[in-house]
Amino acid sequence: MTPALLVDGLAFAYPDGHQALYGIDLRVEPGERVAVLGPNGAGKTTLVLHLNGVLTAGAGQIEVAGLPVVKANLHEIRRRVGIVFQDPDDQLFMQTVGEDVAFGPANFGLTGAELDARVHQALDAVGMTGHIERSPLHLSGGQRRRVALATVLACDPEILVLDEPSANLEPVARRELAEVLLGLGRTMLMVTHDLPYALQLCPRSVLVDDGVVVADGPTRELLADAELLAAHRLELPYGFSFDRAT
Amino acid sequence: MGAGHHLLYHPGDSPVHRLPAQVKIVAALLTVIGVVATPREEFWAFGLYLLVVVSLWVVARVPVGHFAKRVVIEVPFVVIALLMPIFGGTAGALAGWNILAKGTLGVLTSLTLAATTTPRDLIIGLQRLRAPAVLTTIATLMLRYLEVIAAEARRMRIARISRGHDPRFLWQVGATARGVGALFIRSYERGERVHLAMVSRGWRGALPDRGVAAGPATWLTGLTPVLATAAVLGAALLLP
Question: What is the pTM of this model?
Answer without folding.
Answer: 0.79
